[in-house]
Amino acid sequence: MSTLLELRGVETGYHGVPVVHDLDLTVGEGEVVALLGANGAGKTTVLNTIAGLVPRTGGSLSVLGAPVSSRQRGAQRRTLDVVRRGVGYVPEDRALFYDLTAIENVRLAAARRDRAAVAAALDLFPALAPLTGRAAGLLSGGEQQMLAVARALAARPRLLMIDEMSLGLAPIIAERLLASIRKIADDTGTGILLVEQQVGAVLRVADRAYLLRRGRVVVEGRAADLRARPDLLASSYLGSG
Prior knowledge:
Rossmann fold; 4-stranded antiparallel β-sheet; alpha/beta; 36% helix; 10 strands; 2 domains; 6-stranded mixed β-sheet
């Protein structure tokens, strides 16, 4: 299994104030990795740093085996760099064009009108099939989340990052979407880094997990092992320090 993403000793934050400290994290091909932690732990900051939206102030970052420079100025340039390397990102707000139809949203992401990529992305979410002509703003929360992931996949990323996929969704819908994420990784070899609050549900589909508290990794390991230790997870969420 090749390594798609590697962070070593990464420090990052806002306006000179560090939020994430000394972070080591990897994602391999076809692997689902969960990034867990309470609100304010630094999870979204990690994704935004990988995406180039937030500049890191220390450590190293490699995407698909090639280092990403921390000296490149401007969020737009940094983000374009990682996107060209094969990184897709579904942010917490989904970033859909709500006045456009579902199919138009997906087509926007496909390079050079790649119809095969559009079809392949939509095939992963059969529930979207009868909704492709409907405006994204008229879809339910679960349908919008499926559309956001499908749009990201239409760009054929090697690495996909998803922030809070289950936010605002009914538990049964969230579980179905998480099962779809597992299938995407297995079928396409895409590496997936997933920020998620539904700890039990995400650990059932993930391969490994990292738990952040106050910007530092306090627990990491195989998802199956962590699922068997709810006491450890609980103490790590609630502990001091």
